[in-house]
Amino acid sequence: MWVQVLMAVIGLSAGMVVAGGLFSFISELGVVSDFADRTHTGEHILLYENSVALGGILGNIFFIYGIQIPFGAWLLPIFGLFGGIFVGCWSMALAEMLNVFPIFVRRVKLLRGIQYLILGVAVGKGIGALIFFFNRF
């Protein structure tokens, strides 16, 4: 019994550390504050941050305990749209922070068509997410 309690404490602690690291990474990239800045709704920044944290917590609870959401099949496209927008902005914030695209463009000597490269990444991410979600059911 003590081994199971110890394993539960270690698992819970490790999960909290990973979740804390992820949320601090999101905060460090400035995705939430960038959303508030672009939409001119900076006075609601605490609401945005609480929503991100609550979404992460509820998502984990629903996933771990297998809680069924009523009308989940109808809400899935809406969730996919908002989740895709958030992940896209998150990855672009990371790319902006790390200057991935300028370094890549310079290395491959890409002079024209950068917009098509970015569009291809976005479309590929979207199609990959659609394939993933539709193959799960």
The total tally of domains equals 2
Output the number of helix runs: 6
Reading the helices and strands in chain order gives HHHHHH
Q: Whole-number average pLDDT?
A: 78
How would you classify the helix and strand content by structural class? mainly alpha
* Rough outline: globular
Calculate the terminal CA-CA distance, rounded to whole Å. Answer: 37 Å
The Cα radius of gyration reads: 19 Å
Biggest sheet overview = none
Beta-strand percent range: under 5%
Q: Which parts are unreliable, with pLDDT below 50 for 5 consecutive residues or more?
A: none
Q: What portion of residues is helical?
A: over 70%
Describe this structure in words.
With 137 residues, the chain is mainly alpha-helical. The chain has two domains: 1-67, no CATH class; 70-137, no CATH class. It is 84% helix and 0% strand. It is built from six helices and no strands. The chain has helices at 2-29, 31-38, 45-65, 72-98, 100-108, 114-135. The longest helix has 28 residues, at 2-29. The protein is globular. This is Stage V sporulation protein AB. It comes from Sporofaciens musculi.
